Amino acid sequence: MKIISFLRSLHAWGGFVLALLILLVSITGSALVWKKEYLWLTEPVSRSVMEITPELATTVASAAEAQFGDEVLLLAFGYENLGLHKVFLPGSNYALLDNTGALVDQWYLNDRPEEWLYDLHHRLLLGNTGLMIVGIAALAMVLLVFVGLIVWWPARSAFNWRLWVAGWGRSNLLATHRNIGILTALPACVLLITGAMLSFPTQTEELLLEDYRRTEACSNLYTEELDELSGPEHGDWLSAFSRAQASFPGGTIRSVRPPAISSYRLIGTQQAGDWNQSGLSLLYIDADRGYMDMRLNAGRLPAVEQLYNLGSPLHTAKVDRLWYRITVFIFGVGLCVLSFLGLVSFTKKLRGQK
Q: Contact 126/199 with Cβ under 8 angstroms?
């Protein structure tokens, strides 16, 4: 019983310390689920029905190159019928282009509202320091979830399905906090763990993937099923995008790194069934000589790396599945309510209120 009492105190004090931060992160995260809809409302040109064909990708990539030259670091194409394409430029500068390649907006860092909200959610507007704080808080919150389950277990018979507050007394607040906590424990852990992964990407990759990426088997994945085309005529934008589409049939072109970074057009494709919209199936095409130097089929990666790649869409709900976006929104709000009820209840306890 002393252990349970200690764990109960740990859960209460830990939740009190983290409550405001978790409230902030869960509220902003829940709002970011609807970023696409916000852009639809604020940027009418983004509502166009869109399929990223090699021709459209060529139009946008050529326009980006014409406007920004060698400064284009990455071009991320629109998704889910969002007709806006994001250009990554040096020094935390960005731009949005429409389907014709026309400039919609250009900004620095988090000058746009949705970018500011993302920075607040991900980094607390504090750069890498904020990123570390959010990551540590997520891991601490996972621990508190498990501690809460241990504390709850001896009194599990008191659980019921009431998710609303019957009154503002401490016992009512704690009862609703307990009920919501049990129902949201698993999805909350998924969101928290994947959030920590995104906060510590380098450390996560080293822990999960470093040993495999040093193997010959990993290197061999980049040399499978290369086509034999070569020549300058096969290295231009249209030819490169067409080869990417042919190399991964049924896939969608998601991104490209221009040859200003290296000698390649590095094209990322999202294959059918892949939740990650970053474009993890890669094609390296030499821009001048037109040969395909490397090709990576993300579907052939080992299970641990595919699980790692699933972390981002699981956390951000940046997927083309409305049901999952709604689910993440609901559990994000649930985490917010959970933190609020715990904070109010513990504050009442500190003040000696019932």
A: no
CA–CA dist 187, 192 (Å, integer):
9
DSSP letter for each residue of 69-123 = GGG--EEE---TT---EEEEETTTEEEEE-TT--EEEEEETT-SHHHHHHHHHHH
Cα–Cα distance, 248 to 160 (Å, whole number): 50
State how far Cα 216 lies from the chain centre.
30
71-85, 96-110, 122-136, 154-168: the lowest-pLDDT one: 154-168
In this predicted structure, the answer to whether residue 108 has a pLDDT above a threshold of 80 is yes
Q: Supply the DSSP string of 271-293, one letter for each residue.
A: PTT---TT--EEEEEETTT--EE
Q: How sure is the predictor about 1, in pLDDT bands with cuts at 50, 70 and 90?
A: low
Q: Give the position of tokens 């991104």.
A: 255
**What separation in angstroms does the CA of 341 have from each of 110, 113, 189, 321?**
32, 29, 18, 31
Distance CA 39, CA 114 (A): 9
How far is Cα 209 from Cα 175, in angstroms, rounded to an integer? 42
Q: Which of 311, 315, 319 is nearest to 328 (CA)?
A: 315
Distances in Å between the Cα of 61 and the Cα atoms of 35, 79, 159 are 24, 16, 56
CA distance 73 to 211: 28
Distance of CA 85 to the CA centre of its chain: 17
CA count, 13 A, side-chain hemisphere, 84: 22
pTM of the entire structure?
A: 0.92
Whole-number Cα distances in Å, 225 to 269, 283, 293, 295:
15, 11, 11, 7
Write down the domain spans for the chain.
1-45+108-197+322-354, 206-311
